[in-house]
Design a protein that fits this description.
Length: about 140
């Protein structure tokens, strides 16, 4: 996964992604726009059809990221750094932006940059994502007791 994450790091360092980060910063102050972003990102992550386990794992973690941002904005989860939240929102924004470095309408290659960026995010913020997963599983377990 390092080579995929390395490609994601290149995207992270690209001026276009820096622009996306600035847009994410503005969106974070607007809960309605966050809601629209989360809905669109979740739909995109669930629409990808692949039986490859690596892609499925990245999709699952992407969906977890959507749930993390949602939980933060509904106030049920606050144990996340502002840097993780900002970059997570930026990654989701990049995923749903029709104008990215490689347009998604180009089969396979169009989604490769999205997957690379997700791989970078996962490798960089694994601890935060795991901490949220533990919290989420504890919340679900308590809710079903």
């Amino acid at each position: 996964m390092n080579s995929l994450a390395d490609k994601g790091l290149k995207i992270f360092n690209n001026p276009f992604f820096k622009f996306i980060i600035s847009k994410a910063s503005g969106i974070m102050r607007k809960p309605v726009k966050i809601g629209m972003l989360l809905t669109t990102a979740y739909e995109k992550l669930t629409d990808a059809n692949s039986s490859e386990s690596g892609v499925d794992q990245i999709k699952g973690i992407g969906q977890r990221l959507v749930r993390l941002v949602k939980a933060y904005y509904n106030g049920s989860y606050r144990d996340v750094s502002s840097k993780t939240l900002l970059l997570g929102v930026a990654v989701l924004l990049y995923l749903v932006t029709p104008l990215d470095l490689v347009p998604d309408f180009i089969p396979i290659i169009g989604f490769a940059d999205d997957l690379s960026l997700m791989a970078w995010f996962i490798s960089s913020f694994q601890d935060e994502l795991e901490k949220f997963q533990v919290w989420e599983e504890g919340t679900v377990a308590v809710g079903h007791s």
